[in-house]
């Protein structure tokens, strides 16, 4: 790049940054925060999740190869990561389009699509889905967990990673001009790897410059969310504008949950619809049911955290689509909201969790 090209790009970046203040950045461009409506803050509309394939238990090999059909659905729901085809949500664009139309009908307005580099983000598909359905879609910048980092990514300095993330937000990602409106989900394992720490620091530095929302996938250990916050804080990240995802499978003890909540991030319960006996990625965990998730939401509200809570389904396998007998992207709006109301959570509190908190998080400073 010549000096004058460099100066032009710098001026374009400053202009792009200024134009985002007070706005939410969707795959179709910036929108006013009031336009978002009810928002699922952690979903995937197209991804490949083969990085997390778990071989089936001995004796179950045939089920793992069987086609996805009615008689196999219960096995699939209990073993979603042991079936290669089930991990290819990227093959279901037509079904996802139908789902998004149903989501709108159910009162949904926006979806934050958390697919980052490593699990096959597909921005042109997201943009087309937004055009076809009228649902606002916010795409994610940055990198998923270490096992998906390329050798090139692992060799990068924090500054290079920061530049890439900033570019994905200000100018577009994956060789397109389609821009990402959040950083994340940034993937971390437990313990957090060196490469993941660099990405976390880069996310914090990018957030400092952009004033944008960040969302984290923590490792599967109760200490993981707190450790991520520590790394982000040391790098200057804004924890009040950061979401900690997957708390349903990560911090099950209420005392530990309150300790974590004091650190000030958004608290996300995003596995609504997932009811499994054995959680393949950490067999020590008893995955809560949806009823237990609602109980935890009521507990956090009682403890004063209604301004910090977010909910979603994190759909990332085929079996969770209605096409395959799953709950789909409208489960929270159709089923969980009535349950919340029946358990003493007020309509005003539901609206905070589904409308106000996502809007505040997603608005650029
Ligand atoms: C796509 C993704 O990372 N989903 C999270 C699955 S987990 O079981 O909660 O880790």
A few lines on this structure:
This protein has 365 residues and is of the alpha/beta class.
Mind explaining what this structure looks like?
The chain has helices spanning 3-20, 61-65, 73-78, 93-105, 123-133, 151-155, 158-170, 194-210, 224-234, 247-250, 254-261, 290-302, 331-342, 347-362; strands at residues 24-26, 29-31, 38-43, 108-113, 136-141, 182-187, 214-217, 242-244, 266-269, 309-311. The protein has 365 residues and is of the alpha/beta class. α7 (158-170) crosses α8 (194-210) and α8 (194-210) packs across α9 (224-234). The chain has 14 helices and ten strands. The mean pLDDT is 97. The structure holds the ligand CC(=O)NCCS(=O)(=O)O. The ligand CC(=O)NCCS(=O)(=O)O binds at residues 44, 217, 246, 249, 271, 281, 314, 316. It catalyses: N-acetyl-L-isoleucine + H2O = L-isoleucine + acetate; N-acetyl-L-methionine + H2O = L-methionine + acetate; N-propanoyltaurine + H2O = propanoate + taurine; N-acetyl-L-valine + H2O = L-valine + acetate. A divalent metal cation 1 binds at residues 42, 44, 185, 314.
